User: Fold these one by one.
Assistant:
Number 1:
Amino acid sequence: MATRTQSRTSSRSSSGGSRSGSSDNRSSSGENRSSSNRKSDSGSNRSAFSWGEGAGPIIAAALGGAAIGIAANYGRKFMTQAMTGVAGDWDEVLATEHKLTLAVFDKMLATDSTQTWKRNMLLMQLTHMLDKHAHEEEMVVYPALRDAGQAVEADQLNGEHGYIKTFLYDLSQMETDDPSWLEKIRNFRQLVAEHARMEEDQVFPTFKRNLTEEQNAKITGLVNKDGFWQA
Ligand SMILES: [Fe+2]
Ligand SMILES: [Fe+2]
C-alpha cells in the first residue's frame, strides 16, 4: 500500500497542475477577503469576521467561479469514466482499460531518447491510468473475488499490483533519456499484459459465471462509481 500512496502522490504532484492551481486561486481570493475586511474595519467596532461593504459581488463571483470549477471537474470525471464505462459490464470496462493502457505502452516504446518531454507525458498518463484501474480492482473486484471463494487468485493479482507500482516507482526515479528506459518499459509492459491476460482469460470469467444478474449489475455499478471518483 505504501507504494500505491507513493505513486499516487508522485502522479498527483506531477499531473495535478490544474488541481493545485485551483487551490492557489482559493487561497489568493482568501487573502483578498481578509485584506478587504481589514480596510473596512479600521476605526469601527465591527467584528473581524464581518464582510466589508461591497464584498457581495466579490463573494458572488468567487462562489460562481468555484461552482464553474466544480462543474468542470465533474464534467471531466464524467467524460473520463464514460470513455470506458460505456463498454458494458464491469469485466468489459476493465478489459477496455487494459487495452488503452497497453496502447500507451506501445506509444512509449515508439519513442527515442531525444523525446524526453513526450516520454514524461506518457509516463504521467500511464501512472494515472494504472492508479485508477488498480483502485477499481482493489476496492471492488478483488474483495468480491475473496468473498466468492477466489481469495488465492485475488491475493496473487493484488501482489502483482505491488510490482506494477514498483515499476512506476523505479521509472519515477529514472531519467527518461536513460539508455535502459526502453528496456524497463518493455519488461513493464510484459508484466501488465500477462496480469491482464490472467484476469481476462481465467479469473474474471470464473467469477462472473457464478454471479446472478443482480450481483453482476451491482459490481458494474461499483466499478463505475469508483472509476468516476478516481478519474
Ligand atoms: Fe489487476
Ligand atoms: Fe486489470
Note: The two ends are 20 Å apart (CA to CA).
Number 2:
Amino acid sequence: MAPTLAPASSKQTNGVSGTRGEQWVAKNIPCPNCDSSLMLLPVGFPLFDVQCSRCLFRAQVKANRCKPKDQIFGAGWEILDRTLRTGQLIPPLLVNYEWLDRSTGKNRHEVHFFPFLTKANLSRHRRPRTGQRPGYKQFNYVGLLKPSTPQAVLFPKGAQAVSREPADR
Ligand SMILES: [Zn+2]
C-alpha cells in the first residue's frame, strides 16, 4: 500500500523554512563542493533555498512526488528574469524525487544535482486566466533528462539515474 505522504509542493507556515522535501535535502545532502553541511535559507530568500555552512555554494531546491522526469515546475519568472538580465547565472538546482515504484511496490528516493543549467533549460509560461493568480508568469525547468544537461545523482550514493535504466519501471 502507498503510504500517505504530505504534499511536498506547499511551503510550510509554521515558522520552519522549506518544505519537508527541502528540509530533508538540507539535513542529509552534503555540499557538492566541499562536503560540509548545507543549511536552509530563510523563507522568501530570492532564488536560493540552501547554502553551504562553509563555502559559497548555494542552490535552489525542488521537491517532487514523482520519478525523475524531463520537466518540473520552477517558480515565478520575474525574479529569475531580473537576475539573468544582470548577467548572473541560473542557480544550481537540487531536485528531491520521491515516488512509489509500482513494479516493486517500494518507495524510491533520489536526489539529482544540476550544477549548470542554461536558458535552454527554462520554459516560460503563464498561468491560465482563470483560477489562482491569473496570468502570472512562471517557468518550468526542462531538458532535465537530456544527457547534454550536466547532472549527478547525489542520493542514494553510487546510484545510477533512473532515466538511464533501460526499461521504464
Ligand atoms: Zn561547501
Note: Residues 1-15, 165-169 have pLDDT under 50 and may be disordered.
